[in-house]
């Protein structure tokens, strides 16, 4: 029973990581950038949801969708202003710029809205259901189900739509994609919009779950979500989802065993071990350079 | 002439595909041998197996050393094999692009002129002494190939033909016993190829080393090679002197198409 | 031979001159306590960033865990100087920190340096985080609160001397035969192996060397600031060091000096802006990267030798 309980907790936490990891992996897949600011987009999503619910008294689902739209726009703007001018620069330069954007969003929000945490409005009353010794809340179910629905939607967009096909083409070979008439810039913008929308959804849901948001809330989950993406095999959509769930489960398991102080250390240790065994992540294919 | 490199039943499977199977060949002292065959015959894979970039599935490769007789090369790291006297060039030029011509050559000399970690921090007089000697050796080597004026040029800024030449010089700087050239004339015009032909002969004579060369340019091969191995579908199809190969019906059918 | 002696003497002269100048400025009051503080932090950042530049810019390996090694140096120096609060204690602590960092770099480096690019970055980041979490949970390091009230054994003079010494060693290393082998790994690993270069050995050597110099930076940090906590050595610190390297120009030691100085001064100026400081800092960072993507100096290096030769040429042309 205890194990089942931890499984439920781990899966709902993991689905948040998975949603964030998807954004990292999509952006990485298409422009080979570790978008350091992604965790902060998630923070912005939480704040937007907070204002929508508090000021305009919208319901949870409306707030969720509005946050997704808001974050999609932010993602596109960030890409346009900060990353697009550096399209042909070394990747490490774009990475530093992404770190700069991350600092800017964190500190800008701290400056404008103070850095102290605030309570996220209870847009949905938390219920706990008990099944024997098993306890599960409606919010946990909501997070898990919403995340899975969003992941299925994402998979459909990527596999079935023209834009999705363009995304896959650009991630394999941007130059060839351009030659067959794909608008690479639009495709990249679309990728940022998609990834950021998922981050926005994750932000609102985590606000509801933990009931507290602050301008630096994106830092640690952002890094862990990136670790999740690498763990699963960066650039691979199923890999990101898998990695997210693995990390969520590892964290809750370590915590349940009474080593909560070493929770993050365990995540990193597993990451290093997996990378040493499978250098391209769990689902990644190791490619050898041709001589 | 004694056998310098002995390859026995060498096999490499990639998944279910045998890229190289049961190849037997040998290279003798100061010999110029060519390896030919249609595209995809496994020539470069064979090079990679011998120089250690790829690990063989079966078979053995052994090299005669000065002190310890025949030494098995299988399973040794590429840098060890290079250190033992096998040097190579690459089909798609792999120079140290961002470095000067001189540095490209000097890097090849490091394995035979190792220095301690501590001595590299302190720049003792001996450091400058060795450094001056290596620099002189490198420039002399470049001079043999008329490239001494380009010593300070960044490798990637040189014309294509010069880059190919530098790759050969860089390999020679490791003081090899055997030099493996992977399509040295690829992308060259007839004049450049003629110059290269002369260069390869010059290397064999001046350095007294053995050369194994993969090449598609038949005029070059028939011109310089003393012996030829023909590879097809990963298997050895024929072996012999240029005259024998040209007269070999199987080779003519499989590869030359009668049109040499 | 004699020529080399001359260039080395000139470099030594420049170093001594810098030291004298700072002393004079301090004497006449141009450099006050506040500015000295900045100077020390710039110096420590230079030590940290030159080591990371060796790893990233010269051996071509993307490490994102430099702060982990800095932490080892800082804690070793702090613990030793708490017990032996003398200069000797500082030296002992620093040496222990360097050895510790070297050993840890070896343990981390041998398995992870087989990874490429971003995978290596994330693995080294993870390793540094593990070091930090261990420091948070150990008794001897006083957990998350860290160590405080450390004796102030580092001053700007010592920092200056160590900047000069580590830079000389690093630059010598880069320009040695071993250094050339390290460059070849960055340029083309497969070709390097085929030329007899043991690429793993040289990658690890650069990583260990960088880790050991980071420990020196950490030791100076501990005994200058006098307070350390595990969170001083988190991912953000690794990133701050990385920023200096990239902003200066990857592969340019001169650039590392310039960027460390520029960021230090920028930080000093922004102190007056209070809460807006970090906002302006991040904006500056983004703008510098967008408008100077190759870094301040690209791969350009200041060279006394070149300067001399150019002057000689000019003189010849003039005559």
TrEMBL record, chain B:
A cellular-component GO term for this protein: plasma membrane
Any GO BP annotation: D-alanine transmembrane transport
Domain ABC transporter residues, every copy: 5-258
GO molecular-function term, one example from the UniProt record: L-valine transmembrane transporter activity
SUPFAM superfamilies hit by this protein: P-loop containing nucleoside triphosphate hydrolases
Keywords: ATP-binding, Nucleotide-binding, Transport
InterPro entries to which the protein is assigned, alphabetical: AAA+_ATPase, ABC_AA/LPS_Transport, ABC_transporter-like_ATP-bd, BCA_ABC_TP_C, P-loop_NTPase
This protein's name: Branched-chain amino acid transport system ATP-binding protein
One Pfam family recorded for the sequence: ABC_tran
